[in-house]
TrEMBL record:
This is YHS domain-containing protein. Pfam families: YHS (PF04945). It comes from the Bacteria. Residues 7-23 have a biased composition (Low complexity). Residues 1-23 are annotated as: Disordered. It comes from Sanguibacter gelidistatuariae.
Length: 91
């Protein structure tokens, strides 16, 4: 057995950490002069997402004329199950 941290299979399998506690010494991109490229995930509310990275990975959906970007592959199917509810979190 090693002392290395175990990676989770999907960020959606854990609850969203509080921004200050989650940073672990890393910059919070939403607080550090983020560009127009940054948004948040509508499924894991508050989780920062780079629009460019999400698009490159196919982690987005278009719903009622708006594009929604996801933080991980598990969020797309979750959004699809109830897009109106998840879109409302971004309003």
């Amino acid at each position: 057995m090693t002392n290395e941290p175990q990676a989770t299979s999907s960020c959606c399998s854990t609850s969203a950490p509080a921004p200050a506690a989650a940073a672990g010494g890393r910059k919070n991109l939403l607080d550090a002069g983020a560009s127009d490229d940054m948004t948040t995930c509508p499924v894991m509310v508050g989780r920062p997402v780079s629009k460019k990275a999400a698009e490159a990975s196919g982690l987005y959906r278009d719903y009622e004329g708006t594009r929604y970007y996801f933080c991980c592959p598990g969020c797309g199917p979750a959004f699809d199950s109830d897009p109106a509810r998840h879109a409302a979190t971004m309003a």
